[in-house]
Amino acid sequence: MTVTVDLIVMVLRFIVVIGVLILVHELGHFAVARLTGVGVERFSIGFGPVLMRWRGKETEYCLSLIPMGGYVKMMGEENPMEGGDALPYDSAKAFALKPLWARFLIVFAGPGMNFVLAMVIFTVVFATFGRPVWPPAVGRVAEGSPAAAAGLKTGDVVEDVNGRPVKYWEDLERTLADSGGRAITMRVKRGAGEETVTVTPRRKAITDPIFGERREAWDSGAGPQLVPQISSVLPDSPAQRAGLQAGDVVLAVGGQPVFTPEDLVEAIRTRPGQPLPITVERNGQRLSVTVMPRAVTEKAPTGQEITVGKIDAGIATKSVRFEPYGPIAAVEHGVVRTWDVTVLTLKGLWKLVSRQIDSSNIGGPIQIATEAGRQAKEGLGPLAIFTAFISVNLAVLNLLPVPMLDGGHLLFFAIEAVLGRPLSLKKREAAQQLGFVLLMILMVYAFYNDLMRLEAFKLFR
Hints:
By secondary structure, the chain is α+β, with helices and mostly antiparallel strands. The chain is built from 11 helices and 20 strands.
């Protein structure tokens, strides 16, 4: 019964997230079509059999069974003058007879509205919840690092850097990034007293967490003290069987202190099927438990299969808090974040096409539904951010120059602008058929990847 309820909830979350994105996308087409004087015969959310319909003065509005898209059927999408028959509508409302700029705007308005939606979501989240920040407390100090050589210690709280007050750890990171390798002076609080240390940053190769790319950055060898905390525990999971509870603060793993959630995750992932002693603090008391991470086979971005450990528990940061932005700053950061996600999406697409990352990373509706459920458990803010990410992805994918997509129509318009006339109907139809086949292949492959990620289907591999 629990599995059935969870499945229903997951499907409903998927429908809500995808439904909002589709509605906004199609409203973009619809609104600009109306503004440019194009008649709309049907506005549909979803495909397939119609579940609900109602008719307006000119447009039929539909809610259809399959929530995997939608469409706006406009009057005269092909040139109505070519048929020679009497038109059942005013020819001035025909899409194909509108100027090229108007048709371009109508088609671009769909993905354009998905960009706008993402920007609005990011802005609202930044203004309401803010950005995550943590105090400038020193956690791990790497042996042999500039921080260790300067005498920086775990537990030190950085009060100022080069005479400038430090409020959050990000202030220190920004100073390091801008240092150019020059020595920086820190005044730190240590116990009841204060110390002054001078750290000379050094270049360090770091790995991009998304694509695994290597790059260099200035580093001191000291990390923040983020204090990992168990935020949720799944029923009948390794974490529950070991006695871990939501709210437990993790102090050490295998006898070694952990300072960040990443430390804890890495310790778990590298010990599949091995007993893992964990020291936690619960209600002011220190407790020791032993968890046995289950071994899970997954694919790295390169496509290589690796075995990792999982305990099926949510891991958060106890010391993190959120600093809201003012209205103007929230809008600015909303625009910047939308741009960053757009660039990230394009970069990911290029890496897929150039085979730098494996095609098994392509996901479909099941992956979206699963991730939406996971983000919903973390709260409204994470779910909203996830929706914004998917909205940008939907916009970028729709703008690809593939027939059947908005980008394919825009490509036809670009060709028309160059030739001074549209491509023949026969050529456009052939391109549309090819685009349909390509999209079907991609959808089936994405769905196959989704199934292969499910534990039940891994038995058939």
